[in-house]
Amino acid sequence: MALDIAAEATARPHFDYDGQWPDTPVFKGYAAPVRIEGDVYDLEVVGTIPPELDGAYIRNSADHAFPPRFAGDLFLNGDGMLHKVRIKDGRADLSTRYVQTEKLRLERAARKALFGAYRNAFTDDPSVAGKDRSTANTSVIFHAGKLLATKEAAKPMLIDPATLATLGTYDYDGKLQSESFTAHAKIDPATGEMVSYGYFTKGVADRIIELYYIDASGALTRTESFEAPYPSMVHDFLLSPNYAIFTICPMTCDWDRVQAGEAFFHWDDRLPTMVGVVPRAPGGTGNVRWFKAPKPVMETHTFNAWEDGAKLNLEHFITQTGWLSQFPDINDPTAKEQPPFAQRWTIDLEANEDDAIVQTRMFDHIGEMPMIDLRFMTQRTRHFWFGTSNTALGPMLPFGAKGPPFTCIGHFDAETGALDFFYAGPDSSPEEPIFVPRSPDAAEGDGWLMTVVGRRAENRTDFVILDARNLSAGPIATIKFPCRVHEGFHGIWIPGAALG
């Protein structure tokens, strides 16, 4: 089904744009748009940056460049803004740049928002019908020497890692035909192959998921597709040595509701949660096996997958509801979002039952934004880091634009069962942690953990470096930004040798 905006013009809902920032949590307080592009050199440092650190932390965020066309616009619908902290010789510099999408260029020329609701072209100004509405705002990927800014509803954008300049849309020499490409591609450390995927690949809601295999040189070598049980959000996935694994959750999309101007996704727990296990070998999508979870739940983000003989182990954060802070429950509009907990799901691939999933809680503490030592992805790992809150250390923060902010970063040692926490301080909120090994051959978990910390009372931001296996010791170094940068989603570390 092609997306014909002109033919559906009568389906456009009324919009309430008045050129002012809405008085909603998405657009005020610490969540308010920042919109500043610039450079700050020689940032103030409290403590000492480890001299071995040479590289760049780069993360993506959704920072609305213009007041939205709809007062109820989502945090998720902001324009992609990259934040980069370049560290070398014990010093740190900050750079911020918008991803120069077609959407941003057209709106800057018009000096107002032209594109409407999240992933809903039917709500756009007619002048931009058929234009690329990607915000490129969710994550960044560095593979085969190329830095990509990604959003799951669009093709990647190629970025110069040295300058953050946008070099254009990237389609792997024309081999990527899809209109979508996940923000959570996985790089197999054993082979250097990157496995990615797209859903709603034609721009409309359907059941097709495409898998993309990109070799260590950066060439897209094959595309395969399979059908999911129903059209849904497929935000993340898992990779083991022999399988790509998809948890299909009842965060569903109905195209009639999209055309009518309703939310793009709805939580519908009348549908089951299903796990699709796809062999990575060529032709593997022809042999997908589906397993039914005991009850409808949502996978938020993933840690890791690994194999133990015929047992496939999936480690991820699971919530009993959808992302109700962003999308409604179709059956219960009053439902409240429940916090995620880390679970290991073990599937016996030799079992004949389609519901042979054993679920085990990994630790008794809420969390999100998971991180492992990525050098060991697809193997069983010991160390797990995550964003969280711990009321034993400090009070919860008020509910924000994307849910309750973290107050802590947690570390779980699967060998000892110990939990350790970095508490960011009063009115402070750390974001997704990033692990950086002390050296290429360091033991698993031996290195540093980095996180952006929002100093909410000061309306300012810090960048904190921690000992990854001793979080409660506090920061090794706190790099102080002189201003606030926008809350972000996902980031990476690029070694200095790869920056050119």
Summarize the structure.
The protein is mostly beta strands and 500 residues long. The protein has helices at 102-110, 255-259; strands spanning 38-40, 44-47, 55-62, 80-88, 91-98, 139-143, 146-150, 157-159, 166-169, 186-187, 194-199, 208-214, 220-227, 238-239, 243-248, 251-252, 266-267, 274-279, 289-292, 298-308, 311-319, 341-348, 357-366, 368-371, 383-388, 408-413, 419-423, 428-430, 434-437, 447-455, 460-467, 477-480, 488-495. The chain has one domain (6-498): Neuraminidase (6 Propeller), CATH 2.120.10.
Protein described:
With 500 residues, the chain is mainly β. The chain is built from two helices and 33 strands. The strands form eight sheets. Strands 2, 28, 29, 30, 31 and 32 form a six-stranded antiparallel sheet that branches. The N terminus is likely disordered.
